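in:
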């Protein structure tokens, strides 16, 4: 797994989002979630994303149990001050996000081992200029699918 440098942090080029592990997208399965986190670590993922909004404290506690004894292998990301999303939501292929720069790290979420393996494999994909252009046309990184407040945040 390649690494990215975000300021002074060195993290894996692909992260793991844990939102779906707390019931945001169906019933949570703690055992499968912990297996998924462990597999992500085995594959070289070092950036894990959590937030209180994913189920107050449940998600953070789950990640804590999963990384017990491995805390020094992980950078934890979180967020606060959520902006209400309106309009079209567009998912972007992790490989396309990785191609946008060494200081951009996608954090696709999953609660299944097979999906974390697919997400991590995106680090090995090298897109051509034509493929990147097509991906940007289909799902632009910024634009009409972001509300005005989100667009102002992009250029901070």
């Amino acid at each position: 797994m390649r690494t990215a440098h975000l300021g002074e942090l060195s993290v894996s080029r692909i992260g793991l989002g844990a939102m779906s592990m707390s019931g945001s997208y169906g019933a949570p399965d703690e055992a499968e979630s912990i297996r998924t986190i462990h597999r992500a670590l085995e594959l070289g993922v070092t950036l894990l994303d959590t937030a209180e909004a994913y189920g107050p404290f449940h998600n953070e506690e789950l990640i804590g149990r999963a990384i017990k004894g491995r805390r020094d292998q992980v950078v934890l990301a979180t967020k606060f001050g959520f902006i209400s999303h309106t309009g079209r939501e567009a998912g972007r292929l992790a490989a396309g996000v990785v191609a946008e720069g060494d200081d951009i790290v996608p954090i696709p979420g999953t609660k299944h081992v097979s999906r974390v393996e697919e997400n991590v494999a995106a680090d090995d994909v090298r897109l051509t200029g034509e493929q990147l252009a097509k991906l940007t046309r289909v799902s632009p990184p910024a634009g009409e699918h972001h509300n005005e407040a989100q667009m102002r945040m992009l250029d901070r």
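note: The CA atoms of residues 143 and 151 lie 7 Å apart.
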